[in-house]
Amino acid sequence: xxxxxxxxxxxxxxxxxxxxxxxxxxxxxxxxxxxxxxxxxxxxxxxxxxxxxxxxxxxxxxxxxxxxxxxxxxxxxxxxxxxxxxxxxxxxxxxxxxxxxxxxxxxxxxxxxxxxxxxxxxxxxxxxxxxxxxxxxxxxxxxxxxxxxxxxxxxxxxxxxxxxxxxxxxxxxxxxxxxxxxxxxxxxxxxxxxxxxxxxxxxxxxxxxxxxxxxxxxxxxxxxxxxxx
Length: 229
Known about the structure:
Number of helices: 6
Number of strands: 12
CATH topology of the largest domain: Heat Shock Protein 90
Order of helices and strands: HEEHHEEEEHEEHEEHEE
CATH architecture of the largest domain: 2-Layer Sandwich
Number of domains: 2
CATH superfamily of the largest domain: Histidine kinase-like ATPase, C-terminal domain
Largest sheet: 5 strands, antiparallel
Structural class: alpha+beta
Distance between the termini: 47 Å
Mean pLDDT: 88
Helix content: 25-40%
């Protein structure tokens, strides 16, 4: 029965992490592993201590917050001694409406991004740092709208002095459409100052093409399927 409980916890939709007193991870489920690929373990450990009950036991606190790419509506923190403390987050279900379109034109995405970056550099003193996975094939994209999307995101960093642009494949994640599986790539744009007021217009444009966009305090992350055949 103990093994069944462990398997159930490991496959839970909600992240769970057990820390020791120094913040070292003792146990972690699959969903938390995915979360910690986007967020810092120390941040989660600090949350566990901040929301823990003042005496041994368990305490559930309900509030809305974002960690990594997901939204949560609460957490439970529990500890029975001074050696370990556990935290479980409750993920909000998210409905994603993405218009999937296999049509488009093949394009070199590196050249496309360089074009957007060059346009954003005109009349602005911004230091760009690029970190691109060099293995991307030519992708089929709705070039005009994808260019508009990237340009709008870059424009939301109008007052930034430095911007980092990262392009990579999300390992192990796919989207299935018409019995085909497409890998997912992400484009991360991060700067030291971002205008959150422009999020709505950016989200609307992303919904018109094969993209989902997430926002953090200083980072915008575009996810899209890799269509290259």
